[in-house]
Amino acid sequence: MDQVRAFIAVAEELHFGRAADRLRMTQPPLSRQIQRLEATIGVRLFERNNRRVDLTEAGKAFLVESRRLLGVATAAPEVARLVAAGSVGVLRIGFTAASAFGLMGAVLNRLSDVMPDVSVELREMVTRDQLTALDNREIDIAIARPVVDPEIYRSRLLTSEALVAAIPAEHPLTRRTRPLSADDLTNEDLIMHSPLDATYFYDMVVRLLPVSRWKYTHTVSQIVTMVGLVAAGRGIAIVPASASQLGFGAVRFAPLMTPEPQPVELHAIWRQDDRRPLVHRTLQELRPDALV
Questions:
Q1: Looking at residues 126-131, what average pLDDT do you find?
Q2: How many of the other CB atoms lie within 10 Å of CB of 42?
Q3: pTM value > 0.90
Q4: Rounded distance between C-alpha atoms, residue 169 and residue 147, angstroms
Q5: Where do the HTH lysR-type domain residues begin and end (predicted)?
């Protein structure tokens, strides 16, 4: 790199004496550095005589690349420090569709505020697929439901919310002034979470609202699909409160009486063996108190 700096100085000054002064060295060792550089790359970089110094065509091309190389070398230590601090890089975040109703906006705003040089790639997946992606190193952090193996993953609660009933706007239950109970849903047509593809919500609903006479009209995996079916008059759905942000005009959302007031959780999930600074810096910023 000293030879490159020497070359740039001579190329810009076109005078060995001035270049030597600029580099705070004497002229003979500067001339030797240029001679060694020319011998190494096998071409003449300068045309020189007793009166003037000029760049050859090869020298002009080499000057462009030398400046680029010196810029990279100068920036490299700072880049290394930023990487070690988790301040630059590409962060791959998986997220559930339901988390986009509110939480993901807060997550992205927080990261752009405190880590502006980090590029965030988003991948929408159900929790099961997010865990597979973590295993395959395809994502760095999952925003998902808390159904994880503590031997492999770590997780942190980001937000929790209530369950509500999504009801067709003209349904008689929309006129109730109190929270709905499990008994209110007996014999109603219900749009239910899939026990295979939406296990988290299915298990929660049957645990917290053990309705004795369920009548499933449809079984689906996505919250937005459920609310869309409610809007079409196909039945009632039990969904997280944030689903009210979907903006379906033909749907009303009623509070539910449940043993746990806010049972629906979203967690940040990552692999226990992930030691990368960028991941851990991100996790420092993804705290419930910071996502408001």
A1: 90
A2: 7
A3: no
A4: 34
A5: 1-56
Q: What order of strands is seen across the sheet that includes strand 153-161?
A: 118-124, 89-95, 141-144, 264-271, 153-161
pLDDT digits (tens, 9 = 90+) for 220-260: 989 999 999 999 999 999 999 999 988 899 999 999 999 99
CB within 8 Å of 44: residues ≥ 6 apart: 38, 56, 58, 59
Query: Which residue in the block uniquely carries the two structure tokens 């505020």?
Result: 113
State residue 30 phi and psi, 5-degree precision.
-65, -45
Could you give the domains of the chain?
A: 2-84 (1.10.10.10), 89-160+265-290 (3.40.190.10), 163-260 (3.40.190.10)
Q: State the sign of the Cα–Cα–Cα–Cα dihedral 135, 140, 143, 146.
A: positive
Separation of alpha carbons 289 and 278, rounded Å: 20
Query: What pLDDT, in 10s, does the model give residues 3-41?
Result: 888 888 888 888 888 888 898 988 888 888 888 888 888
Q: How far apart are CA 22 and CA 31, in angstroms?
A: 14
